[in-house]
Amino acid sequence: MTNTFSYHVSESGFYGEFGGAFIPEMLYANVEEIRTKYLDIISEPAFQEEFNHLLRDYVGRPSPLYRAETLSRKYGANIYLKREDLNHTGAHKINNTIGQILLAKRLGKKRIIAETGAGQHGVATATVCALMGLECIVYMGAVDIVRQAPNVARMQMLGASVVPAESGSKTLKDATNEAIRDWINNAETTHYIIGSAIGPHPYPDMVTRFQAIVSEEIQWQLKEKTGKDHPDYVIACVGGGSNAAGAFYHFLHDDRVRLILAEAAGKGIDSGHSAATSILGTKGIIHGCMTLLMQTSDGQIVEPYSLSAGLDYPGIGPMHAHLIKSGRASVYAATDDEAMMAVIELSRSEGIIPALETAHALAILDKMTFKKDENVVISLSGRGDKDLNTYIKYLEDHQIPL
Amino acid sequence: MKSIRQTIKDKGANVLNVYFTAGHPTLESTPDIISLLAKCGADLIELGMPYSDPLADGPTIQKSSETALRNGQTTRHLFEQVRSARKQCSIPVILMGYYNQMLQYGIPEFLQEAHAAGIQGLIIPDMPMDVYERDYKKLFENNEIEISFLITPMTSEERIHQADRLSSAFVYIVSQSSITGKQGGISEKQIEYFQKIKNMKLASPSLIGFGIHDKESRSIANEYSQGAIVGSAFIRALDGKGELAEKVSNFMEQL
Ligand SMILES: Cc1ncc(COP(=O)(O)O)c(C=O)c1O
Question: Which of A94, A152, A287, A357 maximizes ligand 1 atoms within 8 Å of its Cβ, making it the mutation to test the pocket?
C-alpha cells in the first residue's frame, strides 16, 4: 500500500523539483541555524513533552472529529469535520505557533515577528508570545487590516504591535515581504514565525511537522468511529498550505487516501481576479522557495485576489506543488460565491459558522462524487467569527435575508 | 571592453560603483543616466532590474522599482537600454536582479543576451552559491559574464572564502545586516568587520555597499576595500528636482 516514492522533504530541502532555500546572504545565517537545529530540537523529549502539554491543556487538543449528519445525507457519504475551529484562537494556526515559539526560546531569540493574512496566524503568534513573554510584531497588509478588523483588535489586546504593509496589493504577500525585511534588519535577535508551509527550507517541513498532529489524530479518531484508520478522502483548503499539510501528513504515502486541495478561484479562474495558484501558476521562486506561483512571463509576481484574506497568496507550499505535479493530490477551485454559499449552508445545517478560507474546502464537495460508505474528512481549519463583517455585507449586497 | 575585475585592478583603489533602477524615473532616462555617470567619474554601473517583490530592498529602491514597473520596464527593455548606452560609453555594467527574473527568461538565453547587449556582470542576491557552482559557473564563463557574491557581518569565514573563490568580478561586502537604504553613520562594530575582511586578504577585489551615502561613508569604504557601492542615495538624488544632467553631476560632486 505504501509508495516507494517519498513525498517528504529531501536532505537538501526539496520536494521533487520544488522547495530549496533561495535567500539573500543576509538571511543565510538565521535560516541555516534553524536548518541545522530544528530536527534535534523538535525530537528532544523535553520539547515534545512541553509541546504536547500545551497542545492538550492550552490549545484544547485533540480537536473533535465530528460526523456532519446533514452533509453526509446530502452527499451520500460519511462526511467528517476535523474541528480545528475549536482550538484556542479559532484555527489550526496555533499548532504551528506553539511549536515555533518553543523552538525560538531554545534558539535564544527575544523578539518574534510574523506575517498574517486573515489575522489568524497573527492572533496565534500574539497569543504564544503573550504566553511566553516575548515581544511580538505582526505585519499585515493594509487591506487585510480593514477586512479582518476583529483580529487586529485581538492581536493588540494580546500586546502585539500590528504594522501595516503598504506595498504592492497590501495583502498577505506584501506582509510576508515586510516580515522578511524586518528579519534581515534584526537577524540576530529575532525569530520569524512563518504562518504557512511556505518559505525557505526548512520552514515548509517544520511547519508541516507541527501541523501533523491533525492527521495523527484523524487516524485514531476515525479508527474509533469506523474501525478504519484511514479515510478515503482528505479535503483541505490551501493558501500557503499549512492546514492541508497537517491534514495530509500521515496519509501522504497511503494510496488508499485521496488528497484533495481546495483553492480560491476568487471571481473565477479566468476572471483575472483569482488566487487559484496551482492552476494559474508556473514554476518560480517566491519568498525563498521554488514552487508554483502566479507570475508574468517576465517573472514579476502577480497580485492574487480572493474575498478570503487567508487564501489570496500567489504561491503554494512546495510540498503541495510536488503533490499536485506528481498527481498525488488533486485540486479543485471554489469561487467567492461558492464559498459564501457553503458558509451559509454549514451555518444553517450544522450550526457551525466556518472561516471563509475553510468554506472553500466545503464548497468543492458539490464538484465531487462519492460512493456510499466512503469516509471523507474535511479539515475545518477555522471558525468564522473574524469574517462576520464580510458575511453580513455579502448577504446585504446579494439581498440574501438574514 | 574591459572586464569588471580588470577595471577594479587597474584603478586599484577608490572605485565607485553607482546603482540605480532601470526604467526609473523614465524608460528613456536609463541610457542617459549610464553615460552621465560615466562622464562624472563613476567606474562601474550597477543597474537594478525592477522586481515586484524586492525582499532585500528598503523603501527607496522599492519605490523606484514600482515606478519602473509602472513605466512598463521589462527585461527586454533593459537589454535595449544598455545597447543604447553602449553607443555613448564603455563603462562596465552589472545587472542586479532577483533569481526568479532570470529563471523566467531562461538562464542561458539571459546570459547570451546580456553579453550581446554589452553587459559585463550579474549580481543575484538570492541565487545560492552552490547552485551557481553546480549549474551555471561554466555557462557564465562561456558567455563572459562575471558574477559577484554578497557577504555580511553574519557570513561565516568558510562562506567568505567560498564567495571569494566564486566571485569573478568582486566580493560584495554588505556593510551591515540590513536591507538597502540605511542612512546612519558607520559604527565601530562595522569597522571591526571591515578590518576582519581586510585582514583575510581575499584573492578577489572587494567593494563595500549598503548605507554608503556621503563622502564620509564612502571614504571608509575606500579605506577598507577597493571602493564603494552607492545606491539608494543616488536614487533619492534622481527623485529630486532639476535637470537630469545637473542632478547626476551634483550628486557625484558631493560624494
Ligand atoms: C482558518 C484558515 N484556514 C486556512 C488558512 C490558509 O492557510 P493554510 O493554507 O496555511 O492553511 C487560513 C489562513 O489565514 C485560515 O485562517
Answer: A357
On the question of pLDDT at A4 being above 80, the answer is no
Q: Do residue A253 and residue A370 come from a single domain? A: yes
In a domain, A353, yes or no: yes
A12 to chain B, any CB pair closer than 8 A? The answer is no
CATH number at residue A135: 3.40.50.1100
Judge whether B97 and B49 are in contact, CB under 8 Å: yes
Distance CA A93, CA B137 (A): 42
Question: Average pLDDT for residues A103-121, to the nearest whole number?
Answer: 97
Tell me: do A196 and A231 sit in the same domain.
Answer: no
Same structural domain, A273 and A222: yes
ipTM value, please give it: 0.96
Tell me which chain B residue has its CA closest to the CA of residue A303: B52
Q: Are residues A371 and A246 in the same domain?
A: yes
Residue A36 touches partner B, C-beta closer than 8 Å: no
- The count of structural domains within chain A is 2
Please give the helix or strand (H or E) that residue B141 lies within, else none: helix B137-142
Given A180, A206, A232, the domain boundary residue is A206
Q: Report the distance separating Cα A150 and Cα A68, nearest Å.
A: 28
| Percentage of residues in chain A having pLDDT higher than 70 | 99
A284/B53 Cβ within 8 A: no
Residue B190, SS3 per DSSP: helix
Asked whether residue A246 is assigned to any structural domain, the reply reads: yes
Nearest CA in chain B to A176: B55
- Cα torsion at A80, A82, A86, A90 (round to 10°)? -130
DSSP H or E run through B239: helix B232-239
Range of the structural domain that residue A238 is part of: 60-90+212-397
Extents of the domains making up chain B: 14-254
Task: Provide the mean pLDDT of chain B.
Answer: 97
A29-55 confidence digits (pLDDT tens): 999 999 999 999 999 999 999 999 999
A177 and A254 belong to one structural domain = no
The domain defined by B14-254 carries CATH number 3.20.20.70 = yes
Instruction: Enumerate residues 168 to 207 of chain A having a beta carbon within 8 A of any beta carbon in chain B.
Output: 168, 173, 177, 180-181, 184-185, 187-188
Q: A173 and A133 in one domain?
A: yes
Point out the domain boundary residue: A206, A221, A254: A206
Inside any domain, residue A348:
yes
User: Around B233, how many Cα atoms within 13 Å sit in the side-chain half-sphere?
Assistant: 22
A316-327 residue pLDDT tens:
999 999 999 999
Of the candidates B69, B149, B48, the residue with the CA atom closest to the CA atom of residue A295? B69
Q: Is residue A61 scored above 70 in pLDDT?
A: yes
| Residue B57 falls in the annotated catalytic set | yes
B172 has pLDDT over 50? yes
Report if residue A4 sits inside a domain: no
Least confident range from A1-15, A132-146, A148-162: namely A1-15
- Which of A14, A17, A22 has the most B C-beta neighbours within 10 Å, making it the best mutation to test the interface with B? A22
Q: Which residue has the cell 561586502?
A: B173
Burial A363-381 (b: 16+ CB within 10 A, else e): bbbeeeebeeebbbbbbbb
Q: Is the pTM of this model over 0.95?
A: yes
Size of interface A-B (CB pairs under 8 A): 101
Query: Both A252 and A343 in a single domain?
Result: yes
Based on the fold, state whether residues A235 and A337 are members of the same structural domain. yes
